Amino acid sequence: MTAQEHGERHRAGFGPSGPSGADASGGGRPSEAPGTVTTPEWLASLARAGARMPVPSVMRPPESGGRRSAVLILFGEGEHGPDVLLIQRNNGLRRHSGQPAFPGGSFEPGDEGPEDCAVREAVEETGVDPVGIELLGRLPELFIRPSAFRVTPVMAWWREPSEVRAADAGEVAGVVRVPVSELADPANRIRARHPNGSSGPAFRVHGMLVWGFTAAILDRLLVLGGWERPWLDGQEAEPVALPGGGTGEDVRRAAGPGREGRGS
């Protein structure tokens, strides 16, 4: 089921639905429309595994409270093989300023589920054409404690890639398709020490330092997808240098040299 069909089904009064041939948790194989590019088996398998992945205690949502939100994990097939769509948030945002992230945001009136929210936000932030997006399922709901967001990641296949850009300049500084091979490359992977003192996976790609919530999900998907490669010897936890209180410029300095994450 495409993202556009999903939204039309809601508006027609059919109620919530998962991917065609699957329940809302992401199990099962998505259906194939005539004349469309078939969803790769590796991605269908990854979506099924992701729906069952365990949630670390630190990311487990509380019984109540928190702001409902969703992100779109949009995989495509690019020049360098499978890739995933990321954005870099604008420096001036009150929360998560300057951080690389999946497209997404908070629920708004009219969003009948995480799929609606994730696709709507992706369209608003990147200008992606929802007709070319095939919804595959959801990962378990996760909790971002610093901002109290309850986030449902939605897995999708970019069946018909379209032009993307920083469509909402007030929120998005750049948009980039990051090859999975670059995320899996040990030379681009580090352990980052977060401002709260904990450490977690991080990636230096396209002039960005991807860390925190987004990096944790990417790290887990690399494992589930069988892409993980042994890290180089001697990898140590490195601090994410946020001396200015977590601004986007601080994060970019910590990313070190590399290609800027702007444009498709």
From TrEMBL:
Residues 65-205 form the Nudix hydrolase domain. InterPro entries: CoAse, NUDIX_hydrolase-like_dom_sf, NUDIX_hydrolase_dom. Its cofactor is Mg(2+); Mn(2+). Residues 1-11, 249-264 have a biased composition (Basic and acidic residues). Pfam families: NUDIX (PF00293). One of its GO terms (molecular function) is coenzyme A diphosphatase activity. Keywords: Hydrolase, Magnesium, Manganese, Metal-binding. It comes from the Bacteria. The keyword Transmembrane does not apply. Residues 1-42, 237-264 are annotated as: Disordered. Residues 13-23 have a biased composition (Low complexity). The keyword Mitochondrion does not apply. PANTHER family: MITOCHONDRIAL COENZYME A DIPHOSPHATASE NUDT8 (PTHR12992:SF11), NUDIX HYDROLASE (PTHR12992). This is 8-oxo-dGTP pyrophosphatase MutT (NUDIX family). It comes from Streptomonospora salina. The lineage of its organism: Bacteria, Bacillati, Actinomycetota, Actinomycetes, Streptosporangiales.
